[in-house]
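Reading a protein record of the kind used here takes little practice once its layout is understood. An example of such a record is reproduced below.
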Amino acid sequence: MRCPCLVGLVAFSLTSCALATDLYNGSLGTTPDAQGWIKFFTDGASVPVTSGGTTSFNTTAGNTEKGGFSNYIPIPPMLVNAAFPSLNRTTGYTVSLDMRVIS
């Protein structure tokens, strides 16, 4: 059984030995979509809400709803941003997320 939840995405960034790229910065007060690296997708009605330096989306209205942020648009398959950093496991990278499941 899936638990209803509210997830706050505070920071999502990629770093490598060569450089660091913030894909989302909550302190800017905008959704990740507005910052140009990733886009929100859902199979339901939830929408991202930005407040207090975080972005969240609430899926309690539909317990089977799925959603999230990605650099890929599924139909037609294409990139949101072609300059998205390459994730090379040989040189290494770090993915950092701060989030909370409320219930």
